[in-house]
Write the structure tokens for this entry.
Amino acid sequence: MARAKAPARSRGTLTVSRPRSHGARRGGAGRPAWVDHYVLQWHNLGIAVLLISIFLLPWRSAILALETLRDAAVEGLGYGVFLILVAFGALGFVILLGRFTLTLRTLRWAAGCICGIVAIWGVLGVFHPAAGPAEVSLRDVGAGGRFGRWLLGFPGVAVWLVSWLTTSFIFWPRRTRDSIRAIPPAVVRIWQLDLHRKLLAAVTSLTDAPTGGDDLMAAVEREMAAAQPRADAPEETDAVDRASRASVQEGQPVSEEPARAVPQRPSPWQLPSLGLLAAADVERHAPDNSARARLIVDTLASFGVDAQVVQVNQGPTVTQFGVEPGWEVKTRTAPERDARGKPVLDRDGNPKFRTEEVSRIRVRVNQITTLANDLALALAAPSIRIEAPVPGKPVVGIEVPNTSASIVTLRSVIETTVFQKLSNRSKLALALGKGVSGEAVAADLSKMPHLLIAGSTGAGKSVCINSIIACVLTHATPDDVRFVIIDPKRVELSGFGSIPHLALSKVIVEVDEVVSTLAAILREMESRYKRFEAFHVRNLEAYNRHPKVTARLPSWVVIIDELADLMMAAPYEVERQICRLAQLARATGIHLVVATQRPSVDVVTGLIKANFPTRIAFAVSSQVDSRTILDTVGAEKLLGRGDMLFLPTDAAKPRRIQGAYVSDQEIERLVDFWTSERWEPYRPPTYDHLVVEARAEQEREDDSDDPLLAKAVELAQEHSRVSASLLQRRLRIGYPRAARLMDELEEAGIVGAAEGGQSREVLAAEPDA
């Protein structure tokens, strides 16, 4: 009898079915035993894959031995761990369904799923969350881990794009083909509208910068040769400017139309390359933040404070641990009762008791802040700073110093996107440093509009001023910004004495010249206000944009390195001039940067603090100094060497920053670039004539009779002895003027001679005729 034929099986297909009985030695209906064994192995494989996918979920593992493996997997794969585990779980379920068929269609869909996972993985690499699964930091590598970061680089981006295209072809073939067919007409349309040339021009204007060295000089020569300015063009411009200035000073209205149009020639200046600055510092060995976080939690728990570390932000100098306060739970012991209300007894006949919760309240913030010294002892840190709470976050920030601090170079901050966006809008953009989380911090001096810096000796004030000047020199020409530098120390800022950005011919180092220099700046401020009034504008930006302005006015930055020396020499004149500049000079584009190493109330007076809303505090010796400069404590716990608190005008609390460092070699390279002989024909004129005029006016006032002499005589008539300090207090004048009044009273015979620094005796009631 003929045997019945088995149904035909399609080629390229493997079908595996579930066995009816796993314990049988042989299969049923002529099926060999090895087939059952093969199917049993697939069944076990499905169970194993499903269990592995559930067991390896990146949650907080209870097995300490797997924490290292889990953290390494999360760091390498990021949130892609979930994609792999979901894929493994799906595969395990498919195997356990009982029928696993391999066909060309199945393989195609499996390939589409794999390519889709890779495509989604690349998208995850774009995001950089602070913490990933199992609280592993993904800030540096991205949400896709190291594999996601590789997919966004070369040549991984090719794999990523191919995965997107393959997934689209498998799941949406018709739409993909239609989209590809629409690309050539779109390219032709873009070419017809000439959009590619406009885009290329925009990108070139943003990225075109000299690379330094001989190529830079050659580019400057080509620029100067192409411009070919006339020899008389600068003289014509200066002549028109002097004429307009003279007419304004004489009170005559400025003509609506200039006598002749003076064309503005292109600027010959070219910005230096960032290659003149040192590259970013190599990252040091990172501390074990997980161990320190556990130590913080254990220390707080030992004092009865329930808390949990939920954030870890590592910066160049300190690491901020975000601590979330826990709960204070109050309990009581009560006897257990059954359903009828009778006490429940144990085997010995004693009543049983249970613990029940009475109340639950949040841990108070001051319970954590009062343990600052105990936390510093447990962490073996010199000092810690607690920020309670962190602005914008529901956590308490505990800032612990790193074992090895990283140097924040000026170039590493300038190259960031934050600073580049700010420098495109303002020529007074300042690269301050990096925050506790390693993010770049930049500020606009024109928005401050003045900056007060204070700190003890060696804390980093002079380095901060050097970095401010060097930062402006990297992206501003002498046509944009001019400096007035006052350095009583003589050596801190003398290296900038030859740059063309100086408004005066030298750095002011003599204390006797400070008053006349500040008076010259006041004269320039008043002259600018008269120009603004003539053109009916309100500030420097509107004046420079006015179509009838022939010469743009640059911004001025007045740098004073040590305010205490000036306040000791002439406290009244210096305070009055600085306060007047701080009150009125903002609209004229004149900004002050004042530094002092003695933030006491006799140096940083109330008037000066009121007119300097933006402040930087470096390490100080006491809480009193911190309150003087910031109106709050915290600066006394700084580490020094550039560690500072920055208090902008729009912030309620200061922000901790590691200041940018610029070396003497970098300053020399920048100064050599700007003092090159190629720029000598274009060096702008200085404003020394304003200082000469201010000094002459001061000498005329000194030679003439003081108008306060009569009031000084009246004051002497009311007392039997007078002194210069008495005249200072009662007449509200400075010491030099009070000393001159005392000399005039002595010449007039009203007071006697000096008696070794003591007060003088009043001899006559009226001066001699």
